[in-house]
């Protein structure tokens, strides 16, 4: 199964998680000023390399970058709706369990 056939699985979640992380980092890095970086720190150098790579991707493949961002936004909305639906269902189930417990206690007592 794949992401586009309507059956969402762990592989799809992994792919979209990577896309989401990439898109978020891209947006964050795009807004950061390179002059703030201290080139003496190794971790900062790798961050600068990432930023340069992300900017290069955005400038050389703007359609791909835009597609990834739109896909992430679309799926985040869908995930938020699914999460809310699961919360509502869990709330309904907890109410049903509570009602069953009350009924059970009345039958025992």
Could you explain how this protein is built, in words?
The chain is an all-alpha fold and 109 residues long. It has one domain (3-108). Helix content is 80%, strand content 0%. The chain is built from three helices and no strands. The chain has helices at 10-30, 42-60, 62-108. Helix 1 (10-30) packs across helix 3. The longest helix has 47 residues, at 62-108. The model has no long low-confidence stretch (mean pLDDT 77).
Protein topology:
Blueprint: H1 10-30, H2 42-60, H3 62-108
Structural class: mainly alpha
In what range is the share of β-strand residues? under 5%
Report how far the terminal alpha carbons are from each other: 52 Å
User: What is the 3D form?
Assistant: elongated
How much is the radius of gyration in Å?
23 Å
**Count of domain modules:** 1
The percentage helix is over 70%
Unreliable spans are none
| Overall strand count | 0
Q: Secondary-structure element sequence?
A: HHH
Main sheet attributes: strand count, strand direction, barrel closure: none
Number of helices: 3
Q: Could you report the average pLDDT, rounded to the nearest whole number?
A: 77
Main attributes?
109 residues; mainly alpha; 3 helices; 80% helix
């Amino acid at each position: 199964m794949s992401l586009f056939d309507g059956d969402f699985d762990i592989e799809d979640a992994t792919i979209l998680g990577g896309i989401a992380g990439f898109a978020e980092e891209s947006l964050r890095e795009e807004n950061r000023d390179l002059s703030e970086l201290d080139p003496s720190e190794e971790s900062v150098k790798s961050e600068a390399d990432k930023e340069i790579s992300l900017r290069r991707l955005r400038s050389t493949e703007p359609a791909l970058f835009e597609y990834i961002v739109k896909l992430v936004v679309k799926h985040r909305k869908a995930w938020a709706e699914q999460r809310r639906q699961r919360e509502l269902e869990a709330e309904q189930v907890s109410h049903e369990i509570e009602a069953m417990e009350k009924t059970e206690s009345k039958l025992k007592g």
